[in-house]
Write a structure and sequence with these properties.
The protein is an alpha+beta fold and 434 residues long. The protein is 42% helix and 16% strand. Strands 10-9-6-7-8-11 form a 6-stranded mixed β-sheet. A hairpin with a 5-residue loop joins β6 and β7. The structure holds zinc ion (ZN).
Length: 434
């Protein structure tokens, strides 16, 4: 009897980017009885993949609620989408134990998963300004706002590029396909042959670049490339908001000069012997915080008594005393406390990473969640995705650990999470200079 036969529940799928998960054939909806959709199957069902339901790491709710019955749709949008892993994975369901275990292999090849974690690590390790890392991270996760995004969300203004007129302005257009970008890349001192075909999707393009980091001077080339992308974005914003037009060669020069200055600063006589950790310390000191400072990150969630709204409260305390930032965030509840709490921790870590803080203690009142984070194991496909993401994010920090919080110490973030239910847009307050 093979190992597979002993698994009564059969093989399910955990969705990454959804590229290899079939909407109608696979078992991929954890809250549905057998993991399959209960919506009547359409005629041309064979080729439809879950990726059609995802855009920019979010479920496309209007499509989902149109294509599925209400119950299916509700259960689908409860599935967290992984930020750090993109391959769909198999896992087994043990019916008798009602316990789900993660399977053994990534469907689209685990090397792709590994390379994905590698993207984060490589980006973090580059010798570039923190704000440029953040910018690249926003390109990768498609969270920059180009005209197309604004138009799609608000139906205001024009989705077309100001420079080219008739082309839709996406992030890829600004950075690769716009007349200005084409000119800049022709003049640029770094060339990436053979990956032009990937410029339709920034994340894929950057992933291909990351693979090349091991080439001679690969890291420097990546750092210079990041500087060029950053200057292209600044150049676009100058035209968009100030009406200033710059020659392409100026963009290249500015990127090259800033890159060289930063390279020299990072490899000077003292810094030559310093480790990456010390460099991170130096940057943190520049940003007005002491090296040994530890940021306590308290998070709490509250779901609305009716409907799907969830409020998230996040409080950051310096060395456990002075409050240095807080966030009031609104999201959609999964109806499961542990999953909501995990989603809040993930979001809070992203916020803190964006600020460039390096030493983090995550505090949450949910014992079960903290135990999962310490062991690195989720107990169902949804928590597995969230735990993976949180640990991938935690890896980006110099230090990041998890602790159970006493309810008595969590009252501020708990009341912020209740307040969050009354607001529509996220609020953020930061009390340290950065
Ligand atoms: Zn253009």
């Amino acid at each position: 009897m093979s190992a597979r036969d002993t698994v009564e529940g059969g093989i399910w799928k955990r969705v990454g980017l959804g590229t290899t998960t079939s909407i109608w054939k696979d078992h991929w909806i954890p809250n549905n009885p057998n993991g399959q959709s209960t919506t009547p199957i359409p005629a041309n069902a064979d080729e439809q993949k879950v990726e059609e339901l995802i855009s920019n790491f979010r479920w496309n709710k209007s499509v989902i609620f149109r294509r599925f019955n209400k119950e299916d749709a509700e259960n689908i949008v409860k599935i967290p989408i992984s930020l750090s892993r993109t391959g769909d994975q198999h896992f087994w369901i043990h019916i008798e134990e009602r316990r789900k275990e993660v399977g053994v292999r990534g469907d689209s090849g685990s090397s792709y998963d590994d390379s994905n974690t590698q993207i984060w690590r490589t980006l973090w390790g580059l010798n570039i300004k923190h704000k440029i890392k953040l910018f690249i991270w926003r390109c990768i996760t498609n969270t920059l706002t180009a005209r197309e995004t604004i138009f799609r969300r608000t139906k205001q203004g024009s989705p077309c590029c100001l420079r080219c007129g008739d082309k839709i302005e996406t992030v890829e257009h600004i950075l690769f396909h716009c007349a200005q970008a084409q000119k800049v890349w022709k003049l640029a001192p770094v060339q990436w042959d053979g990956i032009q075909t990937q410029t339709g999707c920034f994340m894929q393009w950057w992933a291909a670049l990351t693979q090349a980091r091991s080439r001679k001077e690969g890291k420097q080339h990546l750092a210079l490339t990041a500087n060029i992308l950053w200057q292209l974005w600044k150049d676009r914003n100058e035209l968009e908001f100030e009406g200033k037009e710059k020659d392409g060669i100026k963009v290249v020069q500015k990127a090259s000069i800033e890159w060289m200055e930063f390279e020299e600063a990072g490899t000077g006589k003292e810094a030559r012997s310093t480790s990456e950790t010390d460099a991170a310390d130096a940057r943190q000191r520049e940003e007005g915080m002491e090296v040994r400072d530890l940021v306590e990150l308290h998070t709490a969630t509250q779901k609305a008594t009716e409907g799907h709204k969830m409020g998230i409260g996040v409080v950051a305390k310096l060395n456990g005393t002075r409050i240095i930032a807080d966030w009031v965030l609104v999201d959609r509840t999964s109806q499961l406390a542990i999953q909501d709490e995990a989603a809040a921790v993930r979001l809070a870590l992203i916020k803190v990473w964006q600020l460039g803080w390096h030493r983090i203690k995550v505090i949450n009142a949910n014992h079960h969640l903290i135990a999962m984070l310490k062991s690195g194991k989720g107990d169902n496909p949804n928590t597995v995705t969230l735990v993976d993401d949180i640990l991938a994010l935690a890896n980006l920090f110099q230090m990041c650990f998890f602790e159970v919080g006493k309810n008595s110490n969590m009252s501020l973030c708990q009341s912020i999470s209740r307040y969050a239910l009354s607001i529509v847009l996220d609020e953020e307050r930061i009390f340290v200079s950065s």
